[in-house]
């Protein structure tokens, strides 16, 4: 040990290089400090991980529990706030989105699957085309005035829907298109429909115009061949209500499974979930567009 | 059908059946079908039942055929068979599920 100490002193004296600015005393103090530091280093294990000259208390400060507790309650508050907000948002949006998705799926991509241009005349003999469906929700039904039981039942149901929807401030434009133009000229339709609901618009036309309109709406109908003049006959046809949006696009088809109440609920759902096309496209650019 | 030489009001192609004439037809239909229920006949179009129908329900049948449009008569008669078969089918499905 002894020679080592001496050696250090010699090194210390040798190393005390004194430029003009540092006095001899300061140089001696620095030397003492150097000895002290090396002494402390010698007291440690030779392979200590603490770098020489590093503040030994620094690492201990990090281990104190107080900082961790602080971040925990802050995170909890953030979690509750965000979680609550997201939950509220999704709860509100979920059903609306489902309905909208259904409507979007029914709109199809590009060309509409149901609906399209047609040119008919209404019960007053005035022209009525697909453009008259724009600007309001419409409900389209196909039938014929000599229908034995289903059409009148369905039209009565439609009347109940229209009255109920009006109470909820929803004004649908009901349109009845005949599949039997031979027996349903405008005046017959006018009289026939007046027994159901005053709002119902009755459309007719020549056979080809009706056939084309039915095809656009994917409505199947068949008039029996070889009908003699004056002979009574039935017309087979599909029975659906077609709900159309104010852009004339098909939203949904309501079959006989919807009764007086559930039909109203379904229509209300669709009407309140409706988003105009311009807004739908605008929303595609938003950050949360993946939700739609 | 051949029994009516004069055209019925319901068969008039220039006029749609009114609510009241429809109601009249449906009531006569229900009376006739109620009578068929009593003698356990489902398919009134089946020739083998004609004798029994004539014997027990001739008045009801005549009223039904008078009040309803010609095309409706066979339609309702066929529908009675279809409805019965459907009901039976649904009943069986329910039994199988149990």
From TrEMBL, chain A:
<dbReference type="InterPro" id="IPR036249">
    <property type="entry name" value="Thioredoxin-like_sf"/>
</dbReference>
<dbReference type="GO" id="GO:0006878">
    <property type="term" value="P:intracellular copper ion homeostasis"/>
</dbReference>
<keyword id="KW-0479">Metal-binding</keyword>
<dbReference type="InterPro" id="IPR017276">
    <property type="entry name" value="Synth_of_cyt-c-oxidase_Sco1/2"/>
</dbReference>
<dbReference type="GO" id="GO:0045454">
    <property type="term" value="P:cell redox homeostasis"/>
</dbReference>
<keyword id="KW-1015">Disulfide bond</keyword>
<keyword id="KW-0999">Mitochondrion inner membrane</keyword>
<feature type="binding site">
    <location>
        <position position="147"/>
    </location>
    <ligand>
        <name>Cu cation</name>
    </ligand>
</feature>
<dbReference type="InterPro" id="IPR003782">
    <property type="entry name" value="SCO1/SenC"/>
</dbReference>
<keyword id="KW-0472">Membrane</keyword>
<feature type="disulfide bond" description="Redox-active">
    <location>
        <begin position="147"/>
        <end position="151"/>
    </location>
</feature>
<dbReference type="GO" id="GO:0034599">
    <property type="term" value="P:cellular response to oxidative stress"/>
</dbReference>
<dbReference type="InterPro" id="IPR013766">
    <property type="entry name" value="Thioredoxin_domain"/>
</dbReference>
<keyword id="KW-0496">Mitochondrion</keyword>
<feature type="domain" description="Thioredoxin">
    <location>
        <begin position="109"/>
        <end position="276"/>
    </location>
</feature>
<feature type="binding site">
    <location>
        <position position="237"/>
    </location>
    <ligand>
        <name>Cu cation</name>
    </ligand>
</feature>
<protein>
    <submittedName>
        <fullName>WGS project CCBQ000000000 data, contig 00098</fullName>
    </submittedName>
</protein>
<feature type="binding site">
    <location>
        <position position="151"/>
    </location>
    <ligand>
        <name>Cu cation</name>
    </ligand>
</feature>
<dbReference type="GO" id="GO:0005743">
    <property type="term" value="C:mitochondrial inner membrane"/>
</dbReference>
<dbReference type="GO" id="GO:0016531">
    <property type="term" value="F:copper chaperone activity"/>
</dbReference>
<dbReference type="Pfam" id="PF02630">
    <property type="entry name" value="SCO1-SenC"/>
</dbReference>
<comment type="similarity">
    <text>Belongs to the SCO1/2 family.</text>
</comment>
From TrEMBL, chain B:
<keyword id="KW-1015">Disulfide bond</keyword>
<feature type="compositionally biased region" description="Basic and acidic residues">
    <location>
        <begin position="1"/>
        <end position="14"/>
    </location>
</feature>
<protein>
    <submittedName>
        <fullName>WGS project CCBQ000000000 data, contig 00015</fullName>
    </submittedName>
</protein>
<keyword id="KW-0496">Mitochondrion</keyword>
<dbReference type="GO" id="GO:0005758">
    <property type="term" value="C:mitochondrial intermembrane space"/>
</dbReference>
<dbReference type="Pfam" id="PF02297">
    <property type="entry name" value="COX6B"/>
</dbReference>
<dbReference type="InterPro" id="IPR048280">
    <property type="entry name" value="COX6B-like"/>
</dbReference>
<keyword id="KW-0539">Nucleus</keyword>
<dbReference type="InterPro" id="IPR048281">
    <property type="entry name" value="COA6_fun"/>
</dbReference>
<keyword id="KW-0963">Cytoplasm</keyword>
<feature type="region of interest" description="Disordered">
    <location>
        <begin position="1"/>
        <end position="22"/>
    </location>
</feature>
<dbReference type="GO" id="GO:0033617">
    <property type="term" value="P:mitochondrial respiratory chain complex IV assembly"/>
</dbReference>
<comment type="similarity">
    <text>Belongs to the cytochrome c oxidase subunit 6B family.</text>
</comment>
<dbReference type="InterPro" id="IPR036549">
    <property type="entry name" value="CX6/COA6-like_sf"/>
</dbReference>
<dbReference type="GO" id="GO:0005634">
    <property type="term" value="C:nucleus"/>
</dbReference>
